[in-house]
Amino acid sequence: MGNINLKELALALNLSTATVSRALRDSHEISTETKKKVLELAKKLNYEPNPSASNLRSQKSKTIAVIIPEVTNNFFSQAINGIEEIARQHDYHVLIYQTHENSELEIAFMRRLLSGRVDGILISVASETNDDQDFKDILNELPVVFFDRVNENIDAVKVTTDDYESTYKATTHLIECGCRKIAYLMALNNLSTGKKRFAGYLAAMKDNNVTENEALIIPDSNNDDDNYTHIKKLLLDEKPDGIITSIENLALPCYYACRDLKLNIPRDVKLISFSNLKTAPLLNPSLSTITQPAFEMGKEAASILFKILNKKYFEPNETLVLKSVIIKRESTGF
Amino acid sequence: MGNINLKELALALNLSTATVSRALRDSHEISTETKKKVLELAKKLNYEPNPSASNLRSQKSKTIAVIIPEVTNNFFSQAINGIEEIARQHDYHVLIYQTHENSELEIAFMRRLLSGRVDGILISVASETNDDQDFKDILNELPVVFFDRVNENIDAVKVTTDDYESTYKATTHLIECGCRKIAYLMALNNLSTGKKRFAGYLAAMKDNNVTENEALIIPDSNNDDDNYTHIKKLLLDEKPDGIITSIENLALPCYYACRDLKLNIPRDVKLISFSNLKTAPLLNPSLSTITQPAFEMGKEAASILFKILNKKYFEPNETLVLKSVIIKRESTGF
């Protein structure tokens, strides 16, 4: 097979080398039409990026970065292990950065990583993330794959779970268990992840003709004590017969609030939570969960990043959706 | 106050600048006596390392590394948060590396960090750690603080907990609860951490005239399924009335083994475990724990590392021992 270089490819396309290079890197500065033209001819002519030139930028560090909100969150620690498994196969190192939900720290980490310290980034964004331009700037410089918590406004590969379907099924499960006053403990509401989870709940309520009630929808406060107080108030004032918590962190305050109010789970109130807690089956009562395939998501996201690192222009901007599992246990009466 | 440089300090001591420099870095190549002489005069003459020269090596990255076995272990994820709190105060970044108990990976990480990527290292060593020389080589190049799992053969600052006293107290607690056949689930037995925990158990057994029995001592296999099988066999063959697990990972297999054998905790067998599980109070039954001050240990270890980074020769090679807490819950009959 022939070996065509960037200059020859640009000549064949009647474009500048800079434009072709940007198109191959899938830059937002280049139109979709031009990108398509470039990618098609690159594929046809069997264009391979010059290894030494490309290595200068993309493969010198043999390191990738993982940027996540918290390692104490079981979902993320399991996802990291999936990422590391793939990185080891490629003889790569993994750096882990915690944002603690702070978007400024998140962008500061990413900017520092542009210095060549890493070849690519896997990120699950902070709940307060909002500045798209910062992400776009970084994506022009470095391959980034989003997982679980994604930024919808950015063109990049994303690995998520079926958030809408998960809460739809969990809500339906509670309704089938006899619940009619189902509270929703909302989180991540700035992100598509959180919006989809909430939408799944609302849709299941509507489809089953269960009345929606704003007083039953409680936003996450990012503080365990406050969450405990809000949940206790919810239980006292509104007397829900079912609760869905949209993140793991909100499940334990429900246990404590019920215990302190002498409410029996599941008799007085049923509970199901997004959770990757290893102890969920051993809790008193055991916790019904929406369990995301955290380890597999880490593996998938890392595998895609390595594909991009190897032949970056073959990877489309797509969203890969893995399925979560609903595990029914005592907290919903099973 | 006067400002004396390294050359003048060496002249005053009648030593080479290389020797003085090594003594200030606390190198193992320099005798304790010489180090003492150098440090005393350095202090007396108010010697401050030349900031630009020292920054070249020690402060250019504004990053520290944390090397730990697993982020999925609650102790470590909490310790990391303590480390990050201190790092943020110093405007430093934290890189997290997981060894998964592999000592080759551990040394490979440390060697890569020597390139100037970080200014210092906080490490809790892998359970299979054994090569002292590798550590000594790295300590000559970069400040390292050990926490929790330390290498006793290395002269460096260490932050640990009162491992001996903790298992001594936990064993005594089980004896006071009426246990006479107390099994010990051993782990980390290559490390002083594990050895001290085991010694505390043996001493408490002896001091209370409880017969020791080798069949009741089960080593950790580093694999959840194997641990479950070994614990089940222990429960069937030896019928212990109490169990101490020397790491958190061994507690959950005890719950599963008892459940599957229809043994009631605490009636048939009492259980206490080293653990930083947030869900310990909510388990069925709630778990009595030896809880290490993980967050505080991270803070202490990081604080010491920053002291060393700022004026490295003032910090002695000492071991700081923090106290763990015994929390009595239902699994020991409370």
Topology of this structure?
The structure is a homodimer of 334-residue chains.
Chain A: H1 6-13, H2 17-24, H3 32-44, H4 51-58, E1 63-68, H5 74-89, E2 93-98, H6 103-113, E3 120-123, H7 132-139, E4 144-147, E5 157-161, H8 163-176, E6 182-186, H9 192-207, E7 217-219, H10 224-238, E8 242-245, H11 251-260, E9 270-274, E10 288-291, H12 294-310, E11 319-322, E12 325-327
Helix pairs in contact in A: 1-2, 5-12, 8-9, 10-11
Can you tell me about this structure?
The structure is a homodimer of 334-residue chains. Chain A has 334 residues and is α/β, with parallel strands linked by helices. The first copy, chain A, has three domains: 6-48, no CATH class; 59-161 and 294-323, Response regulator (Rossmann fold), CATH 3.40.50; 163-292 and 326-332, 3-Layer(aba) Sandwich (Rossmann fold). Helices cover 43% and strands 16% of the residues of chain A. Chain A has helices at residues 6-13, 17-24, 32-44, 51-58, 74-89, 103-113, 132-139, 163-176, 192-207, 224-238, 251-260, 294-310, and strands at 63-68, 93-98, 120-123, 144-147, 157-161, 182-186, 217-219, 242-245, 270-274, 288-291, 319-322, 325-327. In chain A, the strands form two sheets. Chain A has a six-stranded parallel beta sheet with strand order 2-1-3-4-5-11, sandwiched between helices. A six-stranded mixed beta sheet of chain A has the order 7-6-8-9-10-12, sandwiched between helices. In chain A, helix 7 links the parallel strand 3 (120-123) and strand 4 (144-147). The longest helix of chain A has 17 residues, at 294-310. Chain A binds chain B through residues 70-72, 74, 77-78, 80-81, 84, 93-98, 100, 109, 112, 117, 252, 255-256, 277-279, 282-286, and chain B through 70-72, 74, 77-78, 80-81, 84, 93-98, 100, 109, 112, 117, 252, 255-256, 277-279, 282-286.
